[in-house]
Amino acid sequence: MKRLRKFKNVEDLRKTIQQQEATRQQETKKVITVSSGTCGQARGSQKVIEALKKAIKAEGLKDQVILRITGCHGFCEAEPNLIIYPDRIFYQKLTPEDVRTIVQETIKDGRVVEKYLYRDPRTKERAWYENEIQFYQKQKRIVLGDNVFVDPTSLLDYLAIGGFKPFLKALTEFHPEEIIQTVKKSGLRGRGGAGFPTGVKWEATRRSPGDIKYIICNGDEGDPGAYMDRSVLEGNPFRVLEGMMIGALAIGAREGFIYVRDEYPLAVRHVTQAVDQLYRTGLLGKNILGTEFSFDLHISKGAGAFVCGEETALIASIEGRVGEPRQRPPFPAQKGLWKKPTCINNVETWANIPLIIQNGAEWFSSIGTAGSKGTKIFSLVGKINNTGLVEVPMGITLREIIYDIGGGIPEGKAFKAVQTGGPSGGCLPASLLDLPIDYESLTAAGSIMGSGGMIVMDEKTCMVDVAMYFLNFLRDESCGKCISCREGTQRMWEIVKDISEGKGKPGDLELLEELALATKDASMCGLGQTAANPVLSTLRYFREEFEAHIYEKRCPAGVCKSLIRYVVIPEKCTGCEACKRACPTQAIQGTRKDVHLILYDKCIKCGACLEACRFEAIEAQRDEAIIIDKEVRL
Amino acid sequence: MSTSQTVNLEKIQEIVERYGYDKSKLISILQDIQAVFHYLPAQALKQVAGYLKIPLIDIISVATFYRAFSLKPRGEHVATVCMGTACHVRGAPRILEEFERQLNLKKGETSEDGKWSLETVACLGCCAIGPVVVVDGDYHAHTTIRKVSNILHKYQK
User: Which residue of A205, A322, A347, A509 has the smallest Cβ count within 10 Å?
Assistant: First the structure.
């Protein structure tokens, strides 16, 4: 990498950007882009990269190929993957052994190696190019799309895609008020969950009296099942930092903080490197590019507390205190960090800012619905074929995301629910699949947009178990300040746990609803106010499943351990002994080629046999013993 | 990591000094201490209280509020099972049970010989490749009950 030097002034930076852009456009070499975010690395991308380097060297192609190691490409299912530019040939699920062939055939001889191409499970057709893959169609990747074009550890790479042009524009052509008006007009709303209009927040912070103001980037992406912020921070940290610098200009802040989860080591590393490069090039610090504008940026690492995603708790955490929320008002825009006016926005929100400044408010507001503008990144995970990060225009339907982009449910199972908004959100049933997604529609349906987790559940997911999962999470993460939240989540969890164990009683559901509403009404911060959503939404749409657990002592999905037992279906059992070998307690009897049998007194219901069986010969059935026992007691 | 490891006081002072004895940097200070010792030794916390001139109880309250901190020594190997929603619907609770069974530990415990600690995390954000387990910083994707013994085996030397 070229050594970075300090930019002398605005013109100097402008020229460098032009040079970098021109070099990029005139590039004639092939570029191999390898996805290497956390997921990619977990699937072995680093070994693929090593093998690529060796193969390129061995074939003597060092001067003809550029190897670009990037953040996540979004299609996590296909990791490790690479794209070869300019053709955009997409190879997926690679091992280090595959790489030599790719370098020899595609890079050297210009032939496509079919077997590494993505194969559409429905049409069985292979997709040659990235844009032919169903997963990428219907997406509008304005924020995530650039991940494939930049090495996240290189400022020059970011300049080559026009990075920092928006900042220069804001710095030289806009009055701070104009920046705020542009953001307001664009209709951008906070991507962290609540959807507060970003421009309004900026304006309030700017107008708050006082010389010292702060801005904060909330990267405490705590919702389990959501990881778009990690991907943006890992894959394109400069865009977030540029967004913050524009925000600082508009708001009049001279200091900013990025609060990143401790659980995201790669994101922390990339952001740290990016901040470091901005200081070295004089884009952060005193009198940036010789202008009046000075801005310092600090990184704060979280320490594993979900509640710190709440803005006042996050501020307490940056101040080095226990991350407990406090009563609002005063809002952070009035009294935030160290009691100074503070503007907090989420990672994805900040990442949208440079795009809005560069392309204009009208461009941004032309995407989306009347009340929700732009795109939203969702993490499409759970029981879905194409797992990954999808960026879609607001207003797209759940069906389009789950079936067109996500490719439907694996193993031909039926769709049951989709959970959006994390522990503050809810579960939406199949009847709402045609719901156009925006902030208002999701709230009306009993869920929320949240930070964008979208966990798909199939018929084998038990909604009582899901409600219990979220309540367990919330009772664990409740900071304990409000009794309604601390005790409410605990008691709700106990009731649902009883139901899942077959100890539910008539009246439990009504009590749950009452508790849920009380927790919602009496809690101070977002955690408690929304803690009831997972319960209320599952009760609203899947009440009969709760009732089956209570009155019939039956778990229809076959998940709740206390209510099921595993049985061998004799007609399907081939006697292969796979389950027997997998069983940790020797609870399975049977000789080779004979139908096996599960001994209930030894079975601990770990599910190893179910996982091991390739013939669907093991089933979770209603445990009759429990029912008799419970009926006697009832 | 032996439990009897003596706390290097100079190291503690060096860390606090790096943050300019600034009590607002307490969380960062504790993170750095934990990075060195893999847990927060009581003696170190007392030292920090002295250097920052804040009551020990305030430090303990921060150290016990945040999940990332451990007041007990952790094992030589740390297995962390992700309990995120996506991992949950793909069977994470059963993976955790298998780890508990094989290590003969409950979550949050460390084995008596100091070899293993078993922990859980709310979400690692690798939801696409779940169930995810991290052992000593290595990510294991698509974990199954059957893969657990292989994973453990790799580190049991």
Answer: A509
The interface predicted TM-score (ipTM) is 0.91
Rounded to whole angstroms, how far apart are CA atoms A146 and A31? 15
d(C-alpha A325, C-alpha A312), whole Å = 5
pTM listed for this prediction: 0.94
**Number of neighbours of residue A111 by Cβ within 10 angstroms:** 10
Quickly list H helices, A66-220: 99-102, 155-160, 165-173, 176-186, 198-207
Which domain-ending residue is among A133, A158, A176? A133
What residue in B sits closest to A37 (Cα-Cα)?
B126
User: Which residues 28-87 of chain B have a CB within 8 Å of chain A?
Assistant: 28, 30-31, 61-62, 65-69, 83-86
CA A351: distance to chain centroid? 15
Beta strands in chain B (DSSP E): 77-82, 116-121, 133-135, 138-140
A223 in contact with chain B, both atoms CB, cutoff 8 A? yes
User: Is the Cβ pair A322, B62 closer than 8 Å?
Assistant: yes
Distance from CA of A550 to the nearest CA of B (A): 22
Please answer yes or no on whether B90 and A383 come within 8 Å at the CB atom: yes
Residue A249 clears pLDDT 80, i.e. is over it: yes
Per-domain residue ranges of chain B? 9-65, 77-155
Which CATH number is A200's domain given? 3.40.50.11540
Asked if A611 and B129 come within 8 Å (Cβ–Cβ), the reply is no
Q: In what order do the strands lie in the sheet with A65-70?
A: A65-70, A30-35, A82-85, A89-91
How many structural domains compose chain A? 5
Mind telling me how many Å the CA of B140 is from chain A's nearest CA? 6
Query: For the segment A27-72, what is each residue's pLDDT rounded down to a tens digit?
Result: 999 999 999 999 899 899 999 999 999 999 999 999 999 999 999 9
Query: Looking at domain B77-155, which of 3.40.50.720, 3.40.1190.10, 1.10.3720.10, 3.40.30.10 is its CATH number?
Result: 3.40.30.10
Confidence of residue A115 (pLDDT cuts 50, 70, 90): very high
Q: How much is the mean pLDDT over chain A?
A: 94
Which tops the pLDDT comparison, A603 or B1?
Answer: A603
Please write the tens of the pLDDT for every residue from B111-133. 999 999 999 998 988 888 889 99
Spatial distance between the Cα atoms of B111 and B3, rounded to a whole number of angstroms: 12
Q: Is residue A18 part of a domain?
A: no
A315 residue type, one letter: I
Evaluate whether A83 touches A127 at the Cβ level (below 8 Å): no
Residues B2-56: tens digit of each pLDDT: 444 567 788 999 999 999 999 999 999 999 999 999 899 999 999 999 999 999 9
In a domain, A139, yes or no: no
